[in-house]
Design goal:
The protein has 6 helices and 7 strands. By secondary structure, the chain is an alpha+beta fold. It has 2 domains: 94 residues, Homing Intron 3 (I-Ppo) Encoded Endonuclease, Chain A; 35 residues, no CATH class. The chain has a 3-stranded mixed β-sheet with strand order 1-4-5. It has a two-stranded antiparallel ribbon with strand order 2-3. A two-stranded antiparallel sheet has the order 6-7. It starts with a strand and ends in a 9-residue tail after the last helix.
């Protein structure tokens, strides 16, 4: 259930500061993508989009999006958020290693998929796996639950 947020301060009160990155990590409800979710003016909203709204006074209009300089979906630190295109978002994700590529030396490969599934079976959390393999926790979850890379045993 999303939390109701009316101010920047109320939104920030549910974050933890990550000293090494400066990220303000959302600690409450999250979408499967790893983005925080809250209720604002009767609608469910991603927390990074709401923070952008509190900082700039508007929500970007499609096709523009709110992107993360830090490439952490759970981060709502205002200085880490900027308006950009879907193409920019994909380029950023690829550069940070958060997106599969089709090249043989890409971010993910069958051996890594097997290792991720093994680590999950051993009890590692998706956050831990994500950090170990340089992917988001939501990607680690999707791989371990066979929502992606279904063809790999």
């Amino acid at each position: 259930m999303p939390f109701k947020m009316e101010t920047k301060e109320s939104l920030l009160s549910y974050t933890l500061l990550e000293p090494s990155t400066g990220c303000r990590i959302w600690q409450r409800g999250k979408a499967t993508s790893g983005h925080g979710m809250v209720s604002h003016d009767g609608s469910q909203v991603y927390t990074h989009r709401l923070m952008f709204y509190f900082e700039h006074g508007y929500f970007p209009v499609l096709p523009m999006q709110v992107l993360h300089r830090c490439n952490d979906a759970s981060c709502i630190e205002p200085s880490h958020l900027y308006e950009g295109s879907k193409e920019q978002n994909i380029q950023d994700a690829c550069a940070a290693g958060h997106r599969n590529t089709i090249t043989p030396d890409g971010v993910m490969n069958p051996d890594k998929v097997r290792a991720i599934r093994k680590r999950r079976a051993e009890g590692a959390t998706c956050d831990q796996i994500g950090k170990e393999f340089g992917i988001s926790s939501s990607n680690a979850s999707a791989i371990s639950r066979r929502h992606t890379w279904r063809n790999v045993d």
